[in-house]
Every structure is written in C-alpha cells, then in structure tokens.
Amino acid sequence: MAKDGYDTIDPQRSPSLSRAFSPLSAKDVCEDLIELYFRHIHVSFHFLFHQPSFLASFRDGSLPEVLFFGAIGLSARFSKHQSFASIPLRERGTPYTQEAERRLNLHSPSIVTIQTCMLLGAAAVSEGDSTTESIYFSIACRMAMLLDLPNAHADTCIEQEINNRVWWTVYASDTWSSTGVRLPRMMPHRDVPLPMSESTFLQLSPDTPPYPEQQFNASSATPAQAPHDSLLAHWKFLDQRLSQIDEVNTKAVSHELHGFQLLQTVESISLEMESWASSLPVKMRNTAENLTYWTKEGFGHIFVLLHVQYLHFSQLLFYQFLHRSTDSAGHTSVNFQNAQKCRQHATDLCNLIHLARENPLTDPLYSIAGHILTIASTVQLHILLFSSHAAEVQEARQLLERNFEFLTILRTYWSCLDASFSRFDAFHRACLRRQDDSHFQMDRWMLKFMLEFAEPVNDRAQVEDDEFVAHEEWSLASIGI
C-alpha cells in the first residue's frame, strides 16, 4: 500500500521494524516513541501533524514509513526503554533518520515529502549541520509554494488544517533558518488562515468536512482579532518580528542605522511587540497561574514556547544597548532604559524556563532552549560584572548556575549544544580579557553569536583583529591610497 508515492507501515509484519531495527519489534515501543515525538519535538521544532490521526494511522498500517522514521529519529533520544540503554542518547535516532533520508522521494511533490523534509531539517539542526538544514527547509519552501498548500485540495477538515499548519511551519522555519545562515528568505507572507486552537484541532473527527470559508487570515487580522483560544495563532503574529530585529541589528553593525534613527526604529518594533503582548487574552499572559492552567489543559509546553520566543526576541532587540550602558556620561537615558529592558527580558526568560522545568509536562528539553538560554546567560554575565546592585548581582549569579546546570542536561541529548557551550566559553574568554563591557558591542562577531546558533564561533580577539585590518584597508582606499 502506498500514500503520496510512499510505502506505508505495517507494524505487524514490516521487516524494517522487526529485523533491521530490533528495538522497534515491539509495538508498544513504537507507540512510546511516537508519544515522545509529540511531547518533546512536535511544536518545539514544528507543528506538522494531527496527533490522534498520526497514531491511528500507525496502528492501522496507513502511516507512510518515511514519516514514522523521520519522527522517531528525533524522539528516540528521550526513550527510557531498556533496548536503548546501551546507546548514547544523542545517537539513538541516527539510524532512523538515515532510513527516512533513504526513503525520501523528491520526485513526489506532496504534503508527505514536505513533512519529511521538515523532519530531516530538524534532525540536521540537532546535529549542528546548518547547511543540510537549510537545504531541506529550502526544498520544503519551494514544494509548499508549488503545491499552493493553503489552497490544496483537502477531503477533511483535519487535512485542511494540516495544510495550513505545515505552511506556517515552513514559513517560520524559513525565517529562522535564513536568518541563521545569513541568506534571503524564500517564503512570501500570504493571507493564510491562522491555526485553530489545539483543543479544537485534536477533537476534530476524521469525517468532519473542510470549512467552506476559513477565517482569521494573518494579513487581514490583527493580533487582537486572532482566535482567543489559539496559542499558535498568536505565536504566528510574533514570528514576523524576527526578520525585523535581524535587519535592525545588521544595519546597526554596518552603520546604516545609528543615532536617533536607530532608537526610533527599535522603539517602533518594541511598540509592536508590546502591543502584541498587551493584546493577548488574559489567560494567555505570562503568569505562573496561566502556566498551571494551560498545563492542566495539556498545552503548557506551547504556552511556555510562546513566551520564551517573545522574551528571546525582546532580548535580541535590546541587546546592543548593553554595551557601555553603565557609562552614564557616554549614553543617553533612552539607551540606558533599553539596556534595562534587555536585562529584564533575559531574566524573565531564565525564570520562565526554570519554572517550566518543574513539571515534566512542560520541561523544555528541546535544543533551541539551549541556544536561547546561552544568549540570556551572557546578559546575566553583564549584570554580574557591571551591576552596582547587590540583589541583581546575586540573582544573576544564581541564574547563571541554574542555566549551566540545565545546559549540561540538554547537551546530553543534542549534539548542537556543543556549539552553545563553545560559544559561551568564547564569550566568557572575551570578558576576561577586558575590564570594560566592549565585548558586548554589537558587531559582526556578536551577530554570528546571537543568530547562527548551529555554528561554533571563532575567538573574538582574532575576529576583532581581522575587522581592524579590513577597516584600515577601507580607510586607505577611501582616500585613494
């Protein structure tokens, strides 16, 4: 039996499961790996599937094998089954990812191929392979546009919603991936229906027909008009800010944007983000009570990711103002206030992640948490080194200790976290070389540090020497020498 040009799985007889991959010979192990995928991977990397349908199709033998192997290639690292006990956590998914790659058919333009490319791109991210990640995501982008996915034929409401969610997943991944490799984005911003609430989506019947008219389109709706119970819909409005922030930081580094114009642009983006936060329904705002509420509803992990992303984007927006923010004579009060905003957002981010860790249902064991926490840790380091308030220094020291503890745990699961450790080490070495905060200056090294999270960074001293030489050459050329 085949679906969209792919063989489907039969857990009762498939030799791929029983012989080639012995841990998968037991059906309960396979189902556990699927559950782990939806707990730790789905949404944290992407939202590609309808969980009840995915599990039902595995049980009835209609799930494409390529999707099964792609999903468990990401989730196997979290399995506690004894059959994996002798395999390092990082390596448990490798044979399944390789099997998914072997089965990928780029001659089959379909939703399955797009989903597989997104899974394989996520696997590449986990290995710190930004080149392969970018290639897979680029294929997914092009295929989603070729199929006109939001308008593609759907027999059921579930299929219709999956098409929309996959489109938004590809769009968001294109934003993050393109920013990380410093290449132009591929996906256009289109009038695509926003995701419905998770509870509504999960309760859809396989027989529910498609909606004749889809509402809450991203281009025509404001955040305040998004479905009040859809965490993902509000998330999509936030996604659009990353490119703006990257552009501001890039132009600041190249001196295309500076002075009053820079402050004005940052303030404009900040007001948009603040407007987004204030327009959230009361139940979606970042409070411990709301985290408890959404966790009981079964969507606490999505709630955490929503606010982690907001706080991360905010620390990226204001990070450049940390530099010399302790020198009151050298900077205006606006710069100092922006630096304070960066510190507060970074502190709130750390506290939210550690609060989420207290519950197994919200524990953020995904790799992007490690990168984000590394950036927040550098902000805590700035507080530790330069704050004159004893309480702030003590809190920063405690957060740095807790951050390091959690990053050490994450590192056992994700190879790409080696780069985060090396990045923070490089940053710390830069701090030790100087007594001022010039190492927090927004430059090309800092842009790479903050955005190209899958790649290690060179020692800053070498980069600064190279930039000095390049600047001198440019200066001489500009006067005809």
Would you summarize the structure shown here?
This protein has 481 residues and is mainly α. Helix content is 62%, strand content 1%. The protein has helices at residues 15-20, 27-41, 51-60, 65-75, 94-103, 111-126, 130-146, 157-181, 198-202, 231-239, 241-253, 259-279, 288-297, 300-318, 333-356, 367-386, 390-413, 417-433, 444-451, 460-478; strands at residues 2-3, 6-7.
The total domain count is: 2
Tally the beta strands.
2
Global shape? globular
Low-confidence stretches: 465-481
Taking strands numbered 1, 2, ... along the chain, how are they ordered across the largest sheet? Answer: 1-2
> What proportion strand?
under 5%
Mean of pLDDT: 85
Tell me about this structure:
It is a single chain. The chain is mostly helical and 481 residues long. The protein has 2 domains: 1-175, no CATH class; 254-481. It is built from 20 helices and 2 strands. Strands 1-2 form a two-stranded antiparallel sheet. β1 (2-3) and β2 (6-7) form a beta hairpin.
Task: Note the main attributes of this structure.
nucleus, 2 strands, 2 domains, two-stranded antiparallel ribbon, 481 residues, mainly alpha, disordered C terminus
What secondary-structure arrangement, pairings included, does this model have?
Layout: E1 2-3, E2 6-7, H1 15-20, H2 27-41, H3 51-60, H4 65-75, H5 94-103, H6 111-126, H7 130-146, H8 157-181, H9 198-202, H10 231-239, H11 241-253, H12 259-279, H13 288-297, H14 300-318, H15 333-356, H16 367-386, H17 390-413, H18 417-433, H19 444-451, H20 460-478
Antiparallel strand pairs: 1-2
Main location: nucleus
Pfam families: Fungal_trans
Keywords: Metal-binding, Nucleus, Transcription, Transcription regulation
